[in-house]
Amino acid sequence: MINVEAIEILRQTMSTLQKLTKAYSFHLYSIWLFTLTDLKTIVFPSTFFGLINGIAATLTNTHKPPSSSHHLHLPPPSTILSKTPLVLFWVWINLLPFAIDNQRQPEAIQEDALNKPWRTMPSKRLSPLAAKRLMLTLYPTAILVSLYCGAATQCLTLIFLGYWYNGLRGADANCLVRNFINAIGFICFSSGAMQVAIGGRAAGESALHLLKWWPFVIATIVFSTVHTQDMYDQRGDAVRNRKTVPLVIGDAAARWTIAVPMAVWCVVTPWLWASSAVGYVAPVGLGLTVAVRTLRVRNERGDKNTFRLWNLWLVSVYLLPLVKALETYFWARRMEASTGFGTLNV
Predict the structure, then answer these.
(1) Rounded alpha-carbon distances, angstroms, from residue 106 to 9, 112, 159, 173
(2) 226, 183 in Cβ contact below 8 A?
């Protein structure tokens, strides 16, 4: 005979589990919403940079004789690609506390109520106090993860930049400071992702040394063109009294400060890598598209799509070291085959 009391206990237990699952799902989704709009601008591009440029460094390293003092012990491409989940997680866990700090500010909640009402704070899924507590918990978590992954320097720099951007209102007071913080932030995320992909600080720094001036070029590109993101958000930035480029010098002038650098960088970047015609196709095609759209498409929806194309263009620029490394690698293989010497091993 079935015990009625046991059935009631089982029913209550299942009800409690359902409530806990619903509560956890609610809060996990709230956390996810903090970084949703940054997936296409920070998380995926930074991860892509780390993996692609890590592979490029490995291929570049294969051209150096093992006995050479410049030869580095770097992992093969297959090992780097296997780190993709870890790289993604490192970028995301370092972005999350910054995003929470940015979105929990009263001015940010007011701005998001206009532009992004679905976000965690304007939709009241979390209180500002609870968001602050979560942020303070996540910063130590990010540090511990970064220590494990070998990218603690980038993590600590990002924490400082986050305080400058949000706590000291560096993003609001001066458009040049805003672009500078964005540029350094991009490099921290990208170089940190590369170090995680390569397998730690020592190997990652050595790989960055192989790429020489490339991180500084990327930082300069971001500094000179990242205000593409501010073109579609002028309404919200005005409410927040944020000193962005279009609000400081005017919409028309701001568009030229994007279009001209884009037209220059889309040609200069493949030239810096001495790319073949293949290396010019995507950067030039996408870069000129962004430049033309910035000048001709002047509405909020169009500017948002232009910014998405800017992110895609930046990814095509990230590919240039790999394109060059592959060209050099296959050229070396053909030369070895024609001379009858041994083959390269990757």
Answers:
(1) 45, 10, 20, 16
(2) yes
- CA pair distance 5, 332, nearest whole angstrom: 78
- The answer to whether 193 touches 158, Cβ cutoff 8 Å, is no
The C-alpha atoms of residue 286 and residue 262 are separated, in whole angstroms, by 10
Query: For residues 209 and 199, is the Cβ–Cβ distance under 8 A?
Result: no
What residue has token string 């040049």?
A: 176
| Single-letter amino acid code for the residue at 188 | C
* Contact (Cβ atoms closer than 8 angstroms) between residue 107 and residue 236: no
Q: C-alpha angle with apex 345: 335 to 204, nearest 5 degrees? A: 115
**Rounded distance between C-alpha atoms, residue 162 and residue 140, angstroms:** 14
Contact 98, 90 (CB under 8 A): no
- Widest CA span of the chain, in angstroms? 87
pLDDT tens, 223-282? 999 999 999 888 888 877 888 999 999 999 999 999 999 999 999 999 999 888 889 999
- SS3 label, residue 127: coil
pTM: predicted TM-score of the whole model, two decimal places = 0.85
